[in-house]
Each structure stands twice: as C-alpha cells, then as structure tokens.
Amino acid sequence: MTIAPMTTAERRREHRAWYVYDWANSAFSTTVAGVLFGPYLIAIAEEAAVDDRISVLGISVAPGALPSFTITASTLLSAVLLPLLGAVADRTSHKRQLLGGFAWAGALAAAVLFFMKDDNWELGVVAFLVANLCFGAAAVVNDSILCLISEPEERDGVSSRGWATGYAGGGLLLALNFVVVSMHDTFGLSEGMAVRLSLLSAAIWWGVFTFVPYLGIKDRPPLAVEPTEGGLLQRSFGQLWHTLRDMRRYPVALTFLVAYLFFNDGIQTVIASASVYGVEELGFETGTVLATYLLVQAVAVFGALGFGRAAGRYGAKPVILVGLVIWMAIVTVGLFLPAGELVPFLAMGAAIGVVLGGTQALARSYFSLLIPQGKEAEYFSFYHAMERGTSWLGTLVFGIVYTVTDSYRPALFALIAFFVIGGAILTRVDTAKGIEQARQASVPAGS
C-alpha cells in the first residue's frame, strides 16, 4: 500500500497538529514532574517518616530522596517495556490511536495524584510511576511520527517549533497554577489543596489537548517491517529481535544513543530536581519556585527557536555541544548559589531556559536522521528509555550523593560528569556517515 506524497500545505497542517501534543504533554512535565510533585511528595512522605526515614520495599530512604528514586524506578520499567512498544508501533498504521491511548491513560494516572494527601505517599508514587511510563510511551509514538510528517531537511525546525509550543503551553498552565498556589488563601484553599488542584489541572490539560493531534494526523501504512509470522504481539517481538540484532549495522546511531544516555540524564535530573533544590536547599517558598519555573518556560520558548535557527546555519551537532558547555556552567554555579538570594536563582533559571528546549529539540531531530526507515518507533523507544522524565543514572547518582552528604549542592554538581562524558562521546559521532548508513539500509525481502 502506498499513499500519495503530501503537498506542502498538507504537511504544514499536520505539523501544526503535531505541535499541539507538545503543548498538551508539557502540562505534565512542568506542573507535575518539574515543579509540584517532588516537593509535595517529600512533604507527604515526611508526615509518614519515623526518625526522618521511610521504608520503601524494606529499604530505609530519606524523604528528600524519594522523588529521585521514584523516577529511577519509572525508567527501569521503561527500559524493559518501551522497546517492545516501539516494535508494536512500527507494525501498525494506527500510530495516532496509540498516541492518544497512552496519553489519556497517563492523564488518568496523573489525575489520581489529586488524592495524594495526609501521609499516603505510596499512592503518589504508584500514580506517578504509571503516568510517567505512559508519558514516555506516548513520546515514543509522537517522535516517530515526526519522521513521517516531515522531510529530513525540515526536522530541526519542526522539532524546535514543537518544543517551543510545548514550553508555551506548559508555561501558560504553570502561570495559572502559580496564581492558585501562591494566592491559595485568597481562594479559600489550603496550600495542599491548591497543589492538588494544580496537579489535577495538568492531567486534564494533557488529556483534552491530545485530541488535536489525534484528529489532525493521518494514519500511514507501516514501511520496511521485518517479515515475521503470528499475531501483532508475536510479530512485534520478532521485529524487536531483528532490530536488536541489526543495530550493529548503524554504529553511528548507537554512538549517539550512548552520548544521549549521559547528557540527557544530566539534563533530566536537573529538570526533575530543580524545584526540590530551590525549596529544600535554597529555602524558597513553593510559589517562588513556581515563578522561577515560569521564567524558565518563557525563556525556553525563545531558546528552542533560537537553537533551531542556529542548527540551520551551523548544523545540529555543534549547537548541541555548545548547549552542553552551558549546562556544565549551570551545575557548577549551582554548587555556590547563595541560599535565599532571589536574583542569582532567577539568573540560573534563565540560563536553564536558554539551553533546555534547544538541546532536547535538536537531539530529537538529529537522531531522526540516523535511523532506518520503517523502524522509527523502535529506535525512538530506545531513545526514550533514556529521555525526559525517564532518566535513571542521573537521578540515581543525585539521590545517592544527597543521601551520603545530606546536601543538594554536591548532588547537583555531580551531574557535570554526565555532560562531560556525553559531550565527549558526541564529538565522535560522524553525522554524514550516520545519515549514509541509514539511507543505504537494505529493505528486507518480502516487506
């Protein structure tokens, strides 16, 4: 089965629908994962703590480390499940249905966070695990769609505009939630209820706006899938096996994945831990951290667009490397940031905003050039086992260093190793060779 090539106008309509999914899911990544979940989970866990410790599966854990370990557990689950999901997605023409299904399941799980109160931290951990896993699953499908609706030369720009749209949407909802949380007395709400309502609003936002890409993106037949027998699940396992075996044919893509594992873990851990760092280490109120995160969101819109333009002029790889140098500077400054001083904290937030969207958007579009046709979702599933709120090495290191030192400063600074190692590996990625390897990939007989 073949479909006629899209006109430029048709392609741009699908681009706009695709952008809206970043607008939708950014509500979860900002309001929930980025700002409110970590500090609120710590507060709930502290209510249940005995001698400043809680028991997690029989292991004594400091409440302050619980968010990091929760994200770590979520990523370990993702590492097992997402590659299989990628194989399923590549074998179906109904990618938008998969996108919607995972997004709506994640939004429902996020809505359960509204019921996390008193000392019931276990409910919050389980709900977040499910929501974050669905977030990653939907992102796998969404990013694979990028390869279907855009030409290679468009992808840096399309990906960057998607991230910019996401930061605008996430920032808008966060601004509303900032008003609710910081002025909760005015609305007759306790701070806890204001936080819970904000968590619920993110779930609703995610679910409602997902209808736009669900309705606006066309189904397409799968391409170049492996000729395996059996039902969809059995055939998907077969294709996953072929992909694992054939990955050695794309060493440049694999090298980039290893680099991405390190530098993205650093980025994601900074994002996931920034609100905890601001509240617990620097002593700011939750409302102040929300305001700073709003600044990050606003700056990130322009940062993503600016990085996209720079990539069009200089190429994605050198621009990503510049971004990683800035990340190294950020975590170094964080080691010495004075407690209670708002201006330095805002300056650090602005610096994060400059590089946040740009490095992530370009990593997504750059990787899309290095993978073979017909296996986009599978390769993006491996990509997303290390992506966004699913990092595990960084959060694990952050949690361990905090547990040993009882300070978030050395925990934050320890992340510089991830940027140094990731950047060093990225310098070894040969862009032209990787594109050629993907282009010349042989199509299996009978596909």
From TrEMBL:
Keywords (A to Z) from UniProt: Membrane, Transmembrane, Transmembrane helix, Transport
Give the Major facilitator superfamily (MFS) profile domain ranges: 252-447
Q: Which domain of life is it from?
A: Bacteria
Q: What is this protein called?
A: UMF1 family MFS transporter
Q: What are the record's GO terms for cellular component? A: plasma membrane
Q: How would you describe this protein's topology in the membrane? A: Multi-pass membrane protein
**Protein location:** Cell membrane
Q: Which Gene3D superfamilies does the UniProt entry name for this protein? A: MFS general substrate transporter like domains (1.20.1250.20)
One GO term in the molecular function aspect is: transmembrane transporter activity
